[in-house]
Write a structure and sequence with these properties.
Length: 227
């Protein structure tokens, strides 16, 4: 299993920053990768997006404790629907879309409450997957609205690795672990050249400088206008 991390640069472009062999949910494997990033000068990220892999989140708390966490909505929605009967899946899918597509955090919170009220009595374990990770699922609301489409899911990096997985199936493996890692690196390096810069690129510098956003809007700008 490959551990991989990418980041958004100040100019809005994306780049691969780490790739390593590791065990699937191993905290130590993730911690080794993150420590390597720190040794190479990386400071605490503003926001880290990932799935429900507990090893990643535990390692982040150790190596980059200031970084905020954002759970991937695609993975979360899949985990919720897998815990439900097929008859309930269309309704819950729509209800979850109303949460992460809400116009602001307050409406998202109300959508979560509605979700819990509608489905909590029959399927409390499935509902707890949302209510238990409320903060991590809604963290993106504290960042520029122009960027919301990106941190809600891990799709940008997952789509890149679909190419890697396809190549691995075609070649039926790459021999040694070292050869496999080299192959993956070259494939991702090639794909990286085609990654598009994010919308609202100039706002990345504001985020990194500590500017505060509320429901996607720069708070300082609002305060200045009010004054």
């Amino acid at each position: 299993m490959c551990r991989r991390r990418s980041r958004v640069r100040l100019d809005g472009t994306k780049e691969l920053i780490a790739l390593a062999e590791g065990l699937r949910e191993s905290t130590e494997s993730w911690a080794d990768l993150l420590r390597d990033c720190r040794r190479r000068g990386m400071r605490d990220p503003e926001l880290v997006v990932g799935d429900d892999a507990m090893g990643l989140w535990k390692a982040l708390r150790e190596v980059f404790p200031v970084a905020r966490h954002q759970r991937c909505w695609v993975h979360k929605a899949r985990n919720v629907t897998n815990a439900l009967p097929k008859s309930a899946q269309p309704g819950t899918t729509k209800a979850m879309q109303e949460i992460y597509n809400a116009e602001d955090r307050a409406h998202a919170e109300k959508a979560i409450e509605a979700f819990a009220k509608t489905y909590g009595a029959k399927w409390p374990k499935a509902v707890a997957k949302i209510t238990g990770d409320r903060e991590e699922l809604l963290a993106f609301y504290d960042f520029p609205a122009q960027h919301w489409i990106y941190p809600r899911t891990t799709n940008p990096i997952e789509s890149t690795f679909s190419t890697v997985e396809l190549r691995t199936k075609v070649t039926r493996g790459a021999g040694s672990p070292a050869a496999a890692l080299a192959m993956v690196f070259k494939l991702v390096e090639s794909a990286q050249a085609r990654w598009r810069a994010i919308t609202g690129a100039p706002l990345v510098a504001l985020v990194r400088s500590g500017a505060r956003f509320e429901n996607g809007i720069l708070v300082e700008r609002e305060e200045a206008a009010a004054a």
